[in-house]
Amino acid sequence: MTTEERGVDLVVDVAGPSSLNESIACARRHGTIVAIGVLTMQFPPEGMDYATLLMKQVHLRGLLVGPRKDFEELLDLCAANQIHPVLSPETFTFPQLKEALRQLQSQKHIGKIIIKVE
Predict the structure, then answer these.
(1) Domains in the chain, start-ordered, CATH in brackets?
(2) How deeply is 15 buried, as exposed, middle or buried, from its count of CB atoms within 10 A (0-12, 13-18, 19+)?
(3) Rounded Cα–Cα distance for residues 60 and 55 (Å)
(4) Over the stretch 44-53, which tens digit does the pLDDT of each residue have?
(5) I need a labelling partner for 115 at 20 to 30 A (CA). Which of 37, 51, 54, 89 fits?
(6) Left, alpha or beta for 110 (phi > 0: left; psi -120 to 50: alpha)?
(7) Is the overall model pTM greater than 0.85, yes or no?
(8) Cβ atoms within 10 Å of 22's Cβ, excluding its own
């Protein structure tokens, strides 16, 4: 689906080993796969396309989030100390996504860029 079947720059894989081959196939050469989910516990996945992973020189990164209790404690700490995220004054709608990404890429904004999905 990408121009000249180039592949995508970033694949966010939330399923885990069961979809790793599809993620490798979608990634461009020197692309990145971020694995953040595990729906199956088979490591490494049976039939993993290791050769394509090597040939494309894909970066494979694992990302874990902490337990819910830690997140709740962080939220309590922020509330108790009046810590708030810095938000960009401009809000984009989903149809303005390209404009929002250009704003992000320009690095001229201050704070988080908000995209409303309605």
Answers:
(1) 1-84 (3.40.50.720), 85-117 (no CATH)
(2) middle
(3) 13
(4) 666 788 899 8
(5) 37
(6) beta
(7) no
(8) 13
